Amino acid sequence: xxxxxxxKKPDVKVVLLGDMNVGKTSLLHSITDTVDPxxxxxxxxxxxxxxxxxxxxxxxxxxxxxxxxxxxLAELEERFLSLTDTAHHGCIYAVVxxxxxxxxSKAQLSQDSDGVSEDQIQEEMTKPQVLSAxxxxxxxPASLSGMSLNKxxxxxxxxxxxxRILRYKGLEEKGSLPAEKxxxxxxxxxxxxxxxxxxxxxxxxxPSILRNRNENLQSPTxxxxxxxxxxxxxxxxxxx
Length: 240
Hints:
With 240 residues, the protein is of the alpha/beta class.
């Protein structure tokens, strides 16, 4: 057997689901160049009727919402959760609140910005303002705090939804991955928590994929042609 065949990477299908404008495509673009072993697809809203096809055989499903839009979380439960019925029976589910940079100062720092600590960010935010002699328009909330929108979905809301996913799937919470580990807040714009999300999923999915592959290799196979031949011989001997 060629060495390349022996070293073939396991097939891991990851699907992103979520309402329009929650940032699925941006999340996808932010990791496809760096997470080579994953096959990631993102179902678009206009193809919602084909969503079950996207999820067929998926090893992991990322249910994505916008942290500034409560309705985007509600849509996951009302419209998208049922599409996961065709996923792999051992599928892993992650609940991801994107656009965290709009509500969280930590998420506003790009992952490419080296040497800037969280303490430095806090220091910049608490510096006293120097008043100018010239009158200026009042500062907007975004310019004062770096947050442009109010956060409508809390982490606790996402964790509660994760619990409902488990119940929908008929899974016991005690025997399932904890909500604390499977609920994330990310920013596709700055890269905040994106690597952590996909690395966590990959670390969880890969062992089960390899285990299933080994079980398939070790299970005995049946040669149908050989069985047919043996059956014909038995039939002839019986007739004689």
